[in-house]
Design goal:
The protein is α/β, with parallel strands linked by helices. Helices cover 41% and strands 15% of the residues. Strands 3, 5, 6, 7, 8, 9, 10, 11 and 12 form a nine-stranded mixed sheet that branches. Strands 13-14-17-16 form a four-stranded antiparallel sheet, with helices on one face. Strands 1-2 form a two-stranded antiparallel ribbon. Strand 13 and strand 14 form a beta hairpin. Bound molecules: pyridoxal-5'-phosphate. The site of pyridoxal-5'-phosphate has 12 residues, from helix 8. In the C-terminal section; belongs to the class-I pyridoxal-phosphate-dependent aminotransferase family.
């Protein structure tokens, strides 16, 4: 992709995600040349392209403005009317069958939840692991028991500080990936039969945890651009004795939605009024495509009610299974549950990641990773435009590596999933993201893999399978 195409795609993403509202003035040539380190002619060509795509319009002697109608294509109606009933959840069989089908390495991983291992600094990480392992004291088996390796918690706490959040390392508990952190938090604040608010569509593991712990779910609709519907949440809080919320506020899985900062603050305030804990799943927070890192909702928490969960699985070290929770007022409870369930996260893996964070150049790696994801998103977007029918819709996310695609309504995502697997391609069909198996005409596609003929052909094949997947 040429420089001007990359710049145009970045700005198109900003327009389509709503961060550049309709009617707003686009930056001047001078601003863009300085900001992106490109020539004026690159900016000109990028603006011509955006004009061609119908996203901006020139006004005489006044510059470029976001065109009316630039965003609606992205504002797909994935929102369900809020039913706001609480329900028992039975999702596991469906999820397991979809995960199983996608496991084979020859399958093109459009349904995968991970980015390509090629994007991680595995050699450098191995060096840190070897170095740290040599220095491990026999006593660390005991010393690194929960809350976990001190160096690692200090490094994590420093990363919070980098975002302007004062997060004491004493309140950070290291876990086996974010998934364990999320599950421990849920256990810490609920008992069987309790009601938990989750997103719809939402990460299937939240539904599985609810199923396993014999809880009930209230599904709150998610806007694919701005995240959870706060009015629907307020109604649900009035109607049900909700004991906890499990939400993603940045780059939600599967929609890619990112709550604006004000909305995160409003969410935290709403929950504080009801004294309801928020389990914040932020595994993709570091994978923002824009320059700045979004603040998590926990940044606005004054009551210790937000448990902020994340990990290195999506950003650095997929197989190491190291995650954490900053658990606020629930720290002791989470720590005890960790001890009672899996005792500890791997001691060498904790030490290895701590060493990498200190010496390995994590921020440099993240910048590179984000750059790759931006390019891959542009390529996936172009491929979808080429191979999907006109009435397919998707929302360009401003972070992460998922595209949530609404297929023509007559297409059944589960049938498409079956046909795609037969053709050697995995997709994540919409029904796995909802307790009621809704979103039958949606799929989540992963663009976390370097682009090439294999990916392009997979999207082309999906397009050609749509007719056969109609019900
Ligand atoms: C939204 C979300 N949260 C949490 C996890 C689990 O993260 P980890 O691999 O660190 O346990 C995943 C993994 O797919 C995810 O997509």
């Amino acid at each position: 992709m040429k420089r001007f195409e990359l710049l145009a795609t970045t700005m198109a993403n900003e327009i389509r995600s709503g961060s550049r509202p309709i009617g707003s003035r686009m930056p001047s040539l001078r601003q863009l040349t300085t900001q992106h380190g490109v020539s004026q002619s690159t900016v000109f060509r990028a603006y011509y392209l955006l004009e061609e795509w119908g996203l901006i319009r020139a006004r005489e002697r006044s510059g470029y403005y976001v065109a009316p109608g630039a965003a609606p294509e992205q504002r797909q109606s994935t929102r369900l009317p809020p039913t706001l009933e609480s329900a028992k959840v039975e999702i596991s069989d469906l999820v397991f069958s979809v995960l199983e089908a996608a496991k084979h390495p020859d399958i093109v991983p459009l349904g995968s939840a991970f980015p390509s291992p090629q994007l991680f600094p595995l050699q450098r990480l191995a060096k840190s692991l070897a170095h740290a392992s040599r220095l491990i004291s026999p006593w660390s088996t005991v010393a690194d028991l929960p809350p976990g390796n001190e160096q690692l918690r200090r490094q994590i706490s420093l990363r919070y500080m980098g975002m302007g959040i004062a997060q004491p390392m004493e309140e950070i508990v290291v876990t086996n990936g974010a998934l364990e952190a999320l599950n421990l938090c849920l256990m810490a604040v609920t008992r069987p039969g309790d009601v938990v608010a989750v997103e719809s569509p939402g990460f299937y593991a939240a539904l599985q945890a609810i199923e396993r712990l014999d809880l009930r779910a209230v599904e709150i609709p998610v806007d694919p651009v701005s995240g959870v519907d706060l009015q629907a949440l307020a109604d649900a809080l009035d109607k049900h004795p909700i004991r906890a919320c499990w939400f993603m506020t940045s780059f939600q899985n599967p929609t890619g939605a990112a709550m604006p900062q004000d909305k995160k603050k409003a969410l935290v305030e709403l929950l504080a009024q009801h004294d309801v804990p928020l389990i914040e799943d932020d595994v993709y927070g570091e994978l923002h495509h824009a320059a700045a890192s979004p603040l998590p909702a926990m940044a606005f928490d004054k009551k210790g009610l937000v448990m902020h969960c994340s990990s290195f699985s999506k950003t650095l070290a997929p197989g190491y299974r190291i995650g954490w929770v900053a658990a606020g007022r629930f720290t002791d409870k989470v720590q005890r549950l960790k001890l009672m369930t899996t005792l500890s996260a791997s001691i060498p893996a904790q030490a290895g990641i701590a060493d990498y964070l200190q010496h390995g150049g994590y921020d440099k790696h993240l910048r590179k990773l984000r750059g790759s994801l931006r390019i891959q998103l542009a390529a996936m977007d172009s491929a979808l435009r080429r191979w999907m029918p006109d009435d397919a819709r998707w929302t360009l996310p401003s972070g992460g590596y998922f595209l949530w695609v609404r297929l023509p309504s007559r297409v059944d995502a589960m049938t498409l999933h079956r046909l795609a697997i037969e053709s050697g391609i995995s997709i994540a069909p919409g029904p796995v993201f909802s307790a009621t198996h809704a979103f039958q005409d949606h799929v989540r596609l992963n663009f976390g893999h370097p682009w090439g003929d294999r990916m392009e052909n997979a999207v082309k094949t999906l397009g050609s399978l749509l007719e056969r997947a109609c019900d």
